[in-house]
C-alpha cells in the first residue's frame, strides 16, 4: 500500500476520478497542452485589440476618442469576466470544463467578427468627396455582439488556464515543485509569443489581405488548440473543487457582522477551528473584527448535529484565508493605473502611428504592427532578467532575482517614464502637423519616434505582469488560487475602464469634437497634455504603491503570536 501511495498525487484525481498516478499523469507534457490554449487566446485578443481602433476610425467612421473607448471597454470587459469564469470553475464546472466551454465561445465570437468585417452590408460605404457616413446602429450592433462574445470566451478561459497548468504539478514533490516554478517563468513568455504573432503576421494580414481572413485564422487556430487540449484528457490531473471562495468570503463577513457585538474570548484558542494541523492557518492579529466570525455562541450549530451553520460560525482558518485576500487589496489598487497607461499603447499610440511616415524601403509598416516594439521590449526584458539579472542577484544578494513587490515597483517606474516619453513624442508630432497642415494624410515625421514609449511601457509590463502574478498566486490561500488570478486580471480590466473614463471626462471638459485635448482629428488634438496628465497620475500612484508595499509584508503566523494577541484583546 505504501508503494502505491508514493506513486499517487494526494489531492488530484485522473479523468476517471481515481487518485492520479504521477507516472502517467501531469508533468510538462500535460502543462504544454494547456499552454496552447493560452497562446491562441492571446493571438485572437491582441489581433483584434491592437488594430481595432484603425478599423473603427477608418472603416466605421467613428471619432478618435469614441474608437479608443470601444477598444478599452472591450478589453476591460474581457478581463472583468475572468471573475465570472473563476466563480464557475470553482463552484460548478471545474477548470477543465471551463476552459473547453469558453474556448468554444471565443471561436463563435471570432467567427461572427470575421463575417461582420467581410459583408459590405455590415459596414458603411467608403468616404466620398470628404463626406464620411458613420456606421449605423445595426452595423455597430453586430460588431458589439461579436466583440462581447469574444470577451466572454476570453474571460472564462483565461481565469482557469494558469491554474489548470499548475494543477499538473505536485507542490509537495520537490522535483515537480521546481518544474512548476519553471512553468510560471515561461507562462508569460508564451503569452508574449502569441502577442508577437498577432501584431506582426495577423496585423499585416488585416491591412494587406483582409480583416476577415485574419479573424478566420484566429478561429481556426483556437479550434486546433481545443483539439490539442482535449487530446490530453487522459493525461491531466484534476483537482477537486472546494467550493467558491466568494461564498466563503461572504460567509465570514456575514458571520462577523452578526456577532459584531459579542466580546472577544480571553484566549484565542477558544475560537472555533475544525481543520487538522497540516491544513490549519494560525491566527493573526490583523483585521481583528473578522475574528468574531469564529466566536462560538448559542444557536451556531444545526439542531441535532455537530455541524456548524456556515453563515453563522466560521473556523479560524476560514477567517485567516479572508484576511490573506484582504492583504492583497492595497497592492491590487495601486497596480490599476499601470494598465491605464498600457491602454494608450493599443489605442492612441496606434492612431498616432497611422498619421506618421511608416515606409521602410518599399514596405509600409502597418500602424498596428508598431506594437511589435512593445512585445519585443517584453521578450528582451524577460530574457535579460532571466540570463543577467537573476544570476547577478543570486551572487550578490543570495536571492533568485527581485521580489514580486520590487518587480511591480520597477514596472510602475518604467511606465511613468514611458508616459513622459509619449508626451514628448506627441509634442514633436503636433509641431510637424501644425507646420504642414492638420489635414495632411501622412506627416513628414518618422514613426520610430514612438519607439521609446512602446519600449518603456513594454519593459514595465514584463516586470509588473510577472510580479503581480507571483504576488497574487503566492500570497493567496491554496483554495483561492483561481480567485486570486481573477483578482489580478481585474486590475487589467479596471485599468482599461479607467482609461475610458478619463478619455470621456477629458473630452467633455476640454472641448467637444474639435479644439479639445481629444478632438475627432488627432492632428487637431492636444494628446500631449493628456499624456502629461497620465504621467502625473503615475507619479502619484507610484508614491501610493511605495507606502502600500511596506505594509504588504506577510504578517507573522504561528502559535508564537497568540500570546501577543491575547494580551492585546484582553
TrEMBL record:
Does the keyword Membrane belong to this entry? yes
Q: What does the UniProt entry say about where the protein is found?
A: Membrane
Keywords of the record: Membrane, Transmembrane, Transmembrane helix
Q: Which residues form the signal peptide?
A: none
- The main location is membrane
Q: Which biological process, per GO, is one annotated for this protein?
A: oligopeptide transport
Residue ranges annotated as transmembrane are: 74-93, 100-121, 141-161, 182-206, 212-230, 328-347, 359-385, 405-425, 445-466, 487-510, 530-550
Read off the Gene3D superfamilies from this record. MFS general substrate transporter like domains
Q: What InterPro entries does UniProt report for this protein, alphabetically?
A: MFS_trans_sf, POT_fam, PTR2_symporter_CS
Gene Ontology cellular component terms for the protein in this record? membrane
* Domain of life from the UniProt record: Eukaryota
Membrane topology type: Multi-pass membrane protein
Q: Name one GO molecular function term.
A: transmembrane transporter activity
Q: Does the keyword Nuclease apply?
A: no
Record-stated family: Belongs to the major facilitator superfamily. Proton-dependent oligopeptide transporter (POT/PTR) (TC 2.A.17) family.
PANTHER family under this entry? OLIGOPEPTIDE TRANSPORTER-RELATED (PTHR11654)
Write down what this protein is called.
Answer: Uncharacterized protein
The protein's organism comes out as Colocasia esculenta (Wild taro)
Amino acid at each position: 500500500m505504501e508503494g502505491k501511495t508514493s506513486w499517487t498525487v494526494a489531492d488530484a484525481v485522473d479523468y476517471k476520478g481515481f487518485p492520479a498516478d504521477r507516472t502517467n499523469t501531469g508533468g510538462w507534457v500535460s502543462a504544454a497542452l494547456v499552454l496552447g490554449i493560452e497562446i491562441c487566446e492571446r493571438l485572437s485578443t491582441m489581433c483584434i485589440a491592437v488594430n481595432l481602433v484603425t478599423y473603427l476610425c477608418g472603416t466605421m467612421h467613428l471619432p478618435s476618442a469614441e474608437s479608443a473607448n470601444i477598444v478599452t471597454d472591450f478589453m476591460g470587459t474581457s478581463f472583468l469576466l475572468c471573475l465570472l469564469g473563476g466563480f464557475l470553475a470553482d463552484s460548478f464546472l471545474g477548470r477543465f470544463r471551463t476552459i473547453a466551454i469558453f474556448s468554444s465561445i471565443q471561436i463563435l465570437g471570432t467567427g461572427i467578427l470575421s463575417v461582420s468585417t467581410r459583408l459590405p452590408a455590415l459596414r458603411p460605404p467608403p468616404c466620398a468627396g470628404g463626406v464620411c457616413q458613420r456606421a449605423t446602429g445595426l452595423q455597430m450592433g453586430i460588431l458589439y455582439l461579436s466583440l462581447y462574445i469574444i470577451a466572454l470566451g476570453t474571460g472564462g478561459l483565461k481565469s482557469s488556464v494558469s491554474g489548470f497548468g499548475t494543477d499538473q504539478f505536485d507542490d509537495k514533490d520537490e522535483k515537480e515543485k521546481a518544474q512548476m516554478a519553471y512553468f510560471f517563468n515561461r507562462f508569460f513568455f508564451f503569452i508574449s509569443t502569441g502577442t508577437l504573432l498577432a501584431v506582426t503576421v495577423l496585423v499585416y494580414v488585416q491591412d494587406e489581405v483582409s480583416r476577415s481572413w485574419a479573424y478566420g485564422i484566429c478561429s481556426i487556430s483556437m479550434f486546433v488548440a481545443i483539439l490539442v487540449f482535449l487530446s490530453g484528457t487522459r493525461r491531466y490531473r484534476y483537482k477537486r473543487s472546494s467550493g467558491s471562495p466568494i461564498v466563503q468570503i461572504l460567509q465570514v463577513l456575514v458571520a462577523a457582522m452578526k456577532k459584531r457585538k459579542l466580546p472577544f474570548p480571553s484566549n484565542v484558542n477558544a475560537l472555533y477551528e475544525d481543520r487538522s494541523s497540516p491544513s490549519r492557518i494560525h491566527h493573526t492579529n490583523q483585521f481583528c473584527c473578522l475574528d468574531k466570525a469564529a466566536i462560538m455562541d448559542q444557536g451556531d450549530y444545526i439542531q441535532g448535529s455537530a455541524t456548524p451553520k456556515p453563515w453563522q460560525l466560521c473556523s479560524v482558518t476560514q477567517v485567516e484565508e479572508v484576511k490573506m485576500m484582504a492583504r492583497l487589496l492595497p497592492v491590487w489598487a495601486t497596480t490599476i493605473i499601470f494598465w491605464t497607461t498600457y491602454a494608450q499603447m493599443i489605442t492612441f499610440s496606434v492612431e498616432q502611428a497611422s498619421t506618421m511616415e511608416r515606409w521602410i524601403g518599399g514596405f509600409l509598416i502597418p500602424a498596428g504592427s508598431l506594437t511589435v516594439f512593445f512585445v519585443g521590449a517584453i521578450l528582451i526584458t524577460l530574457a535579460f532578467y532571466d540570463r543577467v539579472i537573476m544570476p547577478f542577484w543570486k551572487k550578490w544578494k543570495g536571492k533568485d532575482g527581485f521580489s514580486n513587490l520590487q518587480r511591480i515597483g520597477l514596472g510602475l517606474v518604467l511606465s511613468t517614464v514611458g508616459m513622459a516619453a509619449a508626451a514628448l513624442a506627441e509634442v514633436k508630432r503636433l509641431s510637424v502637423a501644425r507646420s504642414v497642415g492638420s489635414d495632411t494624410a501622412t506627416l513628414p515625421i518618422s514613426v520610430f519616434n514612438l519607439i521609446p514609449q512602446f519600449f518603456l511601457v513594454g519593459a514595465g509590463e514584463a516586470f509588473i505582469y510577472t510580479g503581480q502574478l507571483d504576488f497574487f498566486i503566492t500570497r493567496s490561500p491554496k483554495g483561492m488560487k483561481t480567485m486570486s488570478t481573477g483578482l489580478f486580471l481585474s486590475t487589467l480590466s479596471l485599468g482599461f475602464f479607467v482609461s475610458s473614463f478619463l478619455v470621456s471626462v477629458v473630452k467633455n471638459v476640454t472641448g467637444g469634437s474639435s479644439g479639445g485635448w481629444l478632438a475627432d482629428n488627432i492632428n487637431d488634438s492636444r494628446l500631449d497634455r493628456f499624456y502629461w496628465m497620465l504621467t502625473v497620475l503615475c507619479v502619484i500612484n507610484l508614491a501610493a504603491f511605495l507606502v502600500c508595499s511596506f505594509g504588504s509584508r506577510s504578517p507573522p503566523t504561528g502559535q508564537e503570536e497568540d500570546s501577543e494577541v491575547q494580551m492585546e484583546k484582553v
